[in-house]
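Allow me, if you will, to draw on your knowledge of protein folds for a short while. The matter concerns a single protein, recorded as an amino acid sequence and a row of backbone structure tokens. Could you please explain, in whatever detail you think fit, how the structure tokens follow from the sequence? I remain grateful for any guidance, and I place the record below:

…
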Amino acid sequence: MTELAYKDHLRLMATYNSVMNARLIAVLTPLSDAALLESRGAFFGSVLGTLNHLVVADLMWLNRFRPQPYGQVLMALDALPKPAALADLLYPTMAELTPVREELDGLILRFIEQLSDADIASPLSYKNAGGVPFTKTLGLVLSHVFNHQTHHRGQVTTLLSQMGLDIGVTDLAPLVPDLTAP
């Protein structure tokens, strides 16, 4: 059995995040923006409301990482909005949201790839959206970021199921490397 480094876990989660977001985009793109903006009783109202929440949360987290010594790869964030609230609807259409989601997923992959083990174990001091200060380990915060994505994508897949749409298997297991494979 091989030893699993935490960076391997983060790399797997970043890949899973990107793959699942691409799968959602493929299913959602043919649908009307009106259908995707329709309030369906979700915490962020609609499919697009929920997807915007994920973009907003990613922007907030990545901007917290940006000023750190390991944050240089995140300079592309300077061209993106700095949301004020977790429910901000920055992109009311799939045509507007898709390129930003894809850019963020690529940025997250590059960010994870360049982190050292020391970076992953380092403390991150930040304030949450309510202004409350925290200091937590970067690697564990990144686990939260990926878990948050999975949580809300699950809400979106439920909304899609209620609309009669199925995006297929969303499990992480198919991306987990098989140790017996050649």
Notes: The domain at 10-175 is CATH 1.20.120.450 (Four Helix Bundle (Hemerythrin (Met), subunit A)). The radius of gyration is 17 Å. The longest strand covers residues 123-127.
